[in-house]
Amino acid sequence: MQPIQLFALASRQAEWLSIRQEVVASNIANANTPEFRAKEVTPFSAVLDETVPRMARTHPAHLAASAYGDDVEVREADLNEEIGVLESGNSVALADELSKAGEIGRQHQLNTALVTSFHRMMLMTVKR
């Protein structure tokens, strides 16, 4: 039986959301740290573009494609036009980071709701 790709996609997004939440939390925690530069994570659409779906191997001599790579990159965030770099050398815009944290929470709730709904649909087909 082939794995259902929706679960793999939801798992991949949950991993990405976890990494993004960690980066945002680090930015918020270091909002008053001198010389700290805010960081950002590669957008999920870019991660999806790099994701290669697993292909079935019908013969042992066929090459196996990797399922998913570690392609989530944490990089220095672009400067916020409103605050720029503060006198302390810090570039964290606290309002933006809190907004990102709320967005991450909403995306995680949506991800969980979709997986739960899909799981219920699968169970309904099995019960019949």
Spatial gap, N to C terminus? 19 Å
Work out the helicity level.
40-55%
User: From the alpha-carbon coordinates, what is the Rg to the nearest angstrom?
Assistant: 20 Å
Strand order of the largest sheet: 1-2
Structural class: mainly alpha
Instruction: Specify the biggest β-sheet.
Output: 2 strands, antiparallel
The helix-strand sequence is HEHEH
Count of DSSP strands? 2
Number of helices: 3
Principal-axis shape equals: elongated
Show unreliable segments.
65-69
Summed up:
By secondary structure, this protein is mainly alpha-helical. It has helices at residues 5-29, 44-50, 94-127, and strands at 39-41, 74-76. The chain contains three helices and two strands, in the order H-E-H-E-H.
Q: Can you characterise this structure?
A:
- With 128 residues, this protein is mainly alpha-helical.
- The chain is built from three helices and two strands.
- The chain has helices spanning 5-29, 44-50, 94-127; strands at 39-41, 74-76.
- A two-stranded antiparallel ribbon has the order 1-2.
- Helix 1 (5-29) packs antiparallel against helix 3 (94-127).
- The longest helix is centred in the last third of the chain and has 34 residues, at 94-127.
- It is elongated, with a radius of gyration of 20 Å.
How does the SSE layout of this entry go?
Layout: H1 5-29, E1 39-41, H2 44-50, E2 74-76, H3 94-127
